[in-house]
Amino acid sequence: MTLVAGVDSSTQSCKVVIRDAATGALVRSGRASHPDGTEVDPQAWWSALQQAIAAAGGLDDVAAISIAGQQHGMVVLDAEGRVIRPALLWNDTRSAGAARDLIDEVGADAYAERTGVVPVASFTATKLRWLRDAEPEAAARVAAVALPHDWLTWRLRGFGPAGEADAPLGPVLDELATDRSDASGTAYWGADGYDRDLLERALGHDAVLPRVVGPADRVGETVAGVVVGPGAGDNAGAALGLDAQPGDVVVSIGTSGTVFAVTEQPVADASGTVAGFADASGNWLPLIATLNAARVLDSTAGLLGVDHAELGRLALEAEPGASGLVLVPYFEGERTPNLPDATASLHGMTLGSTTRPNLARAAVEGLLCGLADGLDAVRGQGVEARRVLLIGGAAQNPAVRAIAAQVFDAPVAIPAPGEYVADGAARQAAWALTGERPGWVVELAAELEPDTRPEIRAAYAAAAGRVADAASAASIPALG
Ligand SMILES: Nc1ncnc2c1ncn2[C@@H]1O[C@H](COP(=O)(O)OP(=O)(O)O)[C@@H](O)[C@H]1O
Ligand SMILES: O=C(CO)[C@@H](O)[C@H](O)COP(=O)(O)O
Description:
The protein folds into two domains: 3-230, ATPase, nucleotide binding domain (Nucleotidyltransferase, domain 5, 2-Layer Sandwich), CATH 3.30.420; 243-410 and 443-474, ATPase, nucleotide binding domain (Nucleotidyltransferase, domain 5, 2-Layer Sandwich), CATH 3.30.420. It has 15 helices and 24 strands. The chain has helices at 42-55, 96-106, 108-115, 124-134, 136-140, 148-156, 180-183, 196-203, 234-242, 294-304, 308-317, 356-379, 398-407, 420-434, 454-475; strands at 3-9, 13-20, 26-33, 39-40, 62-69, 75-77, 87-88, 144-146, 177-179, 189-190, 193-194, 211-213, 220-221, 227-228, 232-233, 248-253, 257-260, 275-278, 284-290, 326-328, 345-347, 387-391, 412-415, 444-448. A hairpin with a 5-residue loop joins strand 2 and strand 3 (26-33). The longest helix is centred in the last third of the chain and has 24 residues, at 356-379. The chain is globular and about 65 Å long. The site of 5-O-phosphono-D-xylulose (5SP) has 16 residues, from helix 9.
């Protein structure tokens, strides 16, 4: 049996799956946690990757590996291959002002046309601009800019800072490599490749960027001779892992909430709502992302003093609409809509509505309504949604599944529990190894017909609209 490995180095953890290259059967798996915070030393990801590989039984009998990972994180390296400062992650909003500055200088239309995206705080370019302005000495030392999966792939192949025992090949920056999907989340890459003018505007000078290789290209080998594939951004990895087809819209509820589909044509939304990313198969991946997803439930469960199972039971005890209680869940600011400084708010509190079941339900409804707005936006770019494929940690919750069928106006299919980002990376590893895209079958655990309750989204839209109005009123300077 030929084995391949796939990795998801995500925000909260590193997951490794090892599968039979021929059938896709899961042979073994492992995971390790990542530190909390929106600023993380990449060394923690490297340690977690090694722990997760060990927990999955190691790579001695594995023929190929690919790494998918959280998108956009800024990993800056000096000329000796050392990480200059902790990486700023996709959910770090300190670069919101830098995003506005870049749009003012370049224009939203020009950004959308050149890169498929309009900068928001999540994207790498804005983090580089923040570095240039806030930490100019660090910015001046930047010799190369990588993303989390690019850097891990480089380290796995034996490159790294000079003198490190686990980096025998040293700091060869030109050996950094990536794929289209992750490059497309930088806001300095477009269909024609890197846009060096946009990189220099952001960072203040040119730098080595990872070579962008094709979806099935090998980027090299590990020191032990395991073939290494290009890797991918995590959402593109999930689309590949699910083998998403036209008509499938994937909704992922992990640390981020994302809504995306694979399309043959690129998207350029100058409003910036839908990001026109690339996918991991040579196509495109229009996507919206929210900053507040599974952790809305983590937080609400903590507040109620219950575990996820009990939170779900409570939520299903309440009526649709939670008797008027609405949670607008912008705990970490928000990206869609673009409200980086927002905080979460609870609306419709009365003596009658303020119950534990209603609060549990309002949390689930709030996070799903944000994603339903995202589904509308993705559809607005011409994407057809014949069904929603619901994945990510929170998709395991029965209340999330049932309420998804009430909030989304399309059938909801729940793939069998699995790590679809890591699975996509494993498919890519098999593709790089054999030259053929695997045809592994994805099983469904459940299929739910729409049970649409429009009152849920109507109440949410009213409350979220008030939050957006208050934010824009606060940003208008007073007269006189
Ligand atoms: N049954 C559940 N109900 C609700 N949330 C859950 C459940 N199981 C896991 N989660 C949450 O899902 C998140 C992890 O999901 P995952 O897709 O692995 O995220 P990421 O890939 O961003 O690290 C955690 O916040 C975890 O608490
Ligand atoms: O910013 C985005 C997509 O644009 C996020 O989807 C990140 O890629 C983080 O993913 P998870 O850790 O939530 O899977």
